[in-house]
Design a protein that fits this description.
It contains 12 helices and 16 strands. Helix 8 packs across helix 12. The chain has a single domain, classed as NAD(P)-binding Rossmann-like Domain (Rossmann fold, 3-Layer(aba) Sandwich). Bound molecules: nicotinamide-adenine-dinucleotide (NAD) and sulfoquinovose-uridine-C1,5'-diphosphate.
Length: 406
Amino acid sequence: MKIAVLGGDGFVGWPTALHLSAQGHDIHIIDNLSRRWIDTELGVQSLTPMDSIQERTRIWLSETGRRIHFHLIDIARDYEILKSWIADEKPDAIIHFAEQRAAPYSMKTDRHKVYTVNNNVNATHNVLSALTETGVDAHLVHLGTMGVYGYSTVGAAIPEGYLPVRLDRMDGGEAEQEILYPTRPGSVYHMTKSLDQILFQFYAQNDGLRITDLHQGIVWGTHTDQTRRHEQLINRFDYDGDYGTVLNRFLIQAAIGHPLTVHGTGGQTRAFIHIQDSVRCVELALQNAPQKGDRVRIYNQMTETHRVRDLANLIAKLTGAEIAWLPNPRKEAAENDLVVKNDQFLALGLDPIRLQDGLLAEIMDVSRKYAHRVDRSRIPSVSAWTRDIEPTLERDPEGRALRSVS
Ligand code: NAD
Ligand code: USQ
């Protein structure tokens, strides 16, 4: 297949591009490199040294003989260029990773909120509009988030996208419907993914676009089979307070002797998936495309759930790291239960990689190898969800300042 990977320079997009190229697909990465600019804005860098996208694809070619093409396009702003590219290249599938994906970044200031909404909603709508206008029948696979469901304790398993409901009919009978599971986003970023869902619903129903939306949990790990092949194919690894996600952050913190930064009681339960399973799920979704006229196909792309404090305790036990119990800069439930259905990917043959499978040690090794690249001052998560979260200075048991919340 000819496959466009929008956002293919990113943490999940890059290993996905390599995985699909290794399987013989013709891969075209489209990216505006905005994440590299955001690194500069925040004064951070990936823990792992990332080469330019051109250099990465050159190494891949020399390693495998397979060419990955790169196109510098801002899909949120360069609508005509994107449309022409789709019309000329006629991809069989488009995988859409190209959004601003950090909840803390999206909540920093009003400017960051506006940027996140403009970028993410326009990016998604431009792709949908360009597919409709050109008539190219590509299967669109979008990376959504488990966060569209929200994190309140429900007492029931979260279904895969749709909720069956019954309504009382006016004639006294009952009407049955399946509706999109009610969204309850917890950040401006998560809100854009909820908006994406409505855009997909409309274009599938109105224009017969073939769309799969993957409601993905927090991705952990860094290496896949392909990124291990050469040092310069290494994947991005975010550890900072905006883009670093909880499990990867705890592992790097343990590796450099920084206390593990638990927000609040750590009672938040979240869904997780290893990066290798994430790329495998995208492959499975591509192999199981919906037909024209089908409703949007939604999968829950996660393999296990964990409570934040359980992860911190596990890593503290493995490594001897201390835990810092910090005030939570986010507005979120202090404690929640989470049970999630993921039957569809299991039925398609996904064999999940679990936390116990030994890969934590591999990430610790990567973290230790590149520990000299870490700027400890970028570890605190200082993006506060509301103005009434008062600035406080947190100290560890030895009295060292950990961070200020503002
Ligand atoms: P990332 O920030 O590493 O990569 C996103 C890529 O998209 C970057 O290379 C960026 O330059 C590009 N991009 C952003 N806006 C663009 C635009 N307007 N035009 C062209 N390119 C643009 O993020 P990631 O962690 O790889 O996440 C990829 C997708 O998966 C996101 O949509 C995210 O919401 C979703 N997701 C990620 C996780 C996770 O834990 N990382 C979990 C669930 C879902
Ligand atoms: N947390 C800590 N300490 C930290 C970092 C985070 O306790 O140092 C807590 C947060 O308060 C939150 C939980 O851990 O309760 C998860 O935070 P996170 O930053 O790991 O994940 P999140 O903000 O939800 O976002 C990430 C990705 C996003 C994706 C989402 C999937 O950045 O792109 O959509 O995970 S999900 O969480 O399933 O919605």
